[in-house]
Amino acid sequence: MNGIILFDGECNLCDKSVQFIIKHDPQAYFRFASIQSEIGKNLLSSYMVPENVNSLILIEEDGFYLKSSAALRICKHLNGVWKVWYFLLLIPKPIRDSFYSIIANNRLKWFGKTAACLLPSPDISKRFL
């Protein structure tokens, strides 16, 4: 099973993050769905993700990951130097997540909301659920 990334479809930072991941994921390991979409809601329910999570969510074969754990596990599959960030999983989760939460709690204020997402090319659109 490939990884599935659930993201906030209204957040500019989240949209840019998805574009970044696509650009650095030449193996197309990841597929994507907005948390607000029907598919996103069904996946949240199926994997019993807690409600009102302020995080991107990574779903892999062995379960789901939130906050810094999700972000760093995503780095493991990216090309280039981004793989190095995966080793930050060695830092205790409460410390990692405190930094993640600062950004997550301010992301809409700092980066704004989007009314519409860019339309991906047909090749990229296959990666969206």
Automatic annotation (TrEMBL):
InterPro entries: DCC1-like, DCC_oxidoreductase. GO terms for molecular function: protein-disulfide reductase activity. Coiled coil: none annotated. Pfam families: DCC1-like. Transmembrane segments: none annotated. PANTHER family: DUF393 DOMAIN-CONTAINING PROTEIN, THIOL-DISULFIDE OXIDOREDUCTASE DCC. This is Thiol-disulfide oxidoreductase DCC family protein.
